Amino acid sequence: MHQTKLEPTPPQAREASYDERVCSRCMGFRALCGVSPCPIVMRAKALARIEDAVQGMDLSGSSPPSVFVGEHGYPKVLAGPLVPPVRSSEAELMERPDQWLNISIDEILALRFSLVRTKKWIPVESASAPGKELHETQTLALSDSPLASEATLLKRPTFTTVFSDRTLPIGPSAPLRTFHLEDNPHVPKVVDKVTSDTDLRATSGVVDLFREGVRQEHITRLLSVGVLGLERKRRLVPTKWSITAIDDIMGKELHREVLRYPWINNYLVSIDKALGNTVAFLFLPSGWQFEALESWLGGFEPPIISDHELGRGRKNYARSVAGAYYATRLPALQYLTSIRRQAGLIVFMETDPQRWVPLGVWRFREIAKRALSGSVLSFSTLDEATAEIGRHLRVPIGRWLGRSRIYAEFQSQTKLTDFF
């Protein structure tokens, strides 16, 4: 299929043409000019602060704790801890997206861009027999609180990437020579138990940690640094893959549980918004089925992308909506298990590019969790429920519903009440 190549837009024309030419096609992941606040400016400011703070090639600070494992070059990847060049009281907040919905995008970027990503080429299979730097990185990942650390770099920190469709924003990176911790980690008992059990499969370990209340970001980094699973099968897992893997593993676990519950009786609606994103849930009185619809506002008629599954779940990856599919599916399943009910479900995700930059799929997960932990409205008819959702979206609700396969099938199904 022929694709039109987008040429750079002259500065004077960006404001008028940015949404139509770029936003609705790539959703901001490949071209970022015109987004406010400008990520390039934020990046430059963060780099200036880091250059002032880093003395020579030595980096000393309090890691949130945070690690990053890249995917380029797999099965040999760039991995290492994320360390700010200062010992900051904000270190813990740097890895707590569950606390970011009520702060500004500028504050989030300032927090994340102040972290230096140290990196070293490491074979993924070395997770079970790590060298010194990887062992220290794994020890850092076990902790649930910030740790003072020191790193010696091979080069000065520079920015190579800014944003990803799934991971948290990342500051400048630098090749790592040496790394060691100055503090002993505080490791929760359940984390120590699961990571020490080399006969426990990784999926079972993830479920145990999740059900014991370990934060999802903590579980993600444990999987990334290769401290979960059977000893001979432990591997480093790129952070980008780990994020969706945790959502999917727990989603499948709760999916099996939800299938045992009776259906809801009415139509349920829950909506929340933050950081330029709106997430709206529509629960249908039916057996389990799930559909994620997403629209990146831009142009005259912004496109709506979708992925869905029926009662038995998905066998393949949701390539259109990608990580956001799994990030909203999990909170929905958590809600249904909490009320011990089964339902069909459509989630509407709308993004305003004028108030947003790519921050990772955590934003959809956290907005969804907050929506479902708050007010969930009940309606006796489908028209009332969809009208309520339509009041909170800028794309007309008719366009959303016209794109939904589950809505169309639900409307066409014969119901018991049709006979009375």
Written description of the protein model:
Mean pLDDT is 87; it is low at 1-32 and 416-420. It contains 13 helices and 12 strands. The N and C termini lie far apart (51 Å). Helix 6 (202-211) crosses helix 8. It has a 6-stranded mixed sheet with strand order 1-5-6-4-3-2. It has a 6-stranded mixed sheet with strand order 10-9-11-8-7-12, with helices on both faces. Helices cover 36% and strands 20% of the residues. The chain folds into 3 domains: 18-181, no CATH class; 189-252, no CATH class; 259-413, no CATH class. The protein has 420 residues and is of the alpha+beta class.
Order of helices and strands: HHEEEHEHEEHHHHEEEEHEHEHHH
Class computed from helices, strands and strand pairing: alpha+beta
Number of domains in the coordinates?
3
Shape: globular
Low-pLDDT runs of 5+ residues are 1-32, 416-420
Mean pLDDT: 87
> Tell me about the biggest sheet?
6 strands, mixed
Q: What's the total count of β strands?
A: 12
How much helix, percentage-wise, in residues?
25-40%
* Fraction in beta strands: 15-25%
Task: Give the termini distance in whole angstroms.
Answer: 51 Å
The whole-angstrom Rg is 22 Å
Number of helices, where a helix is a run of at least 4 consecutive DSSP H or I residues: 13
* Main sheet: strand order: 1-5-6-4-3-2
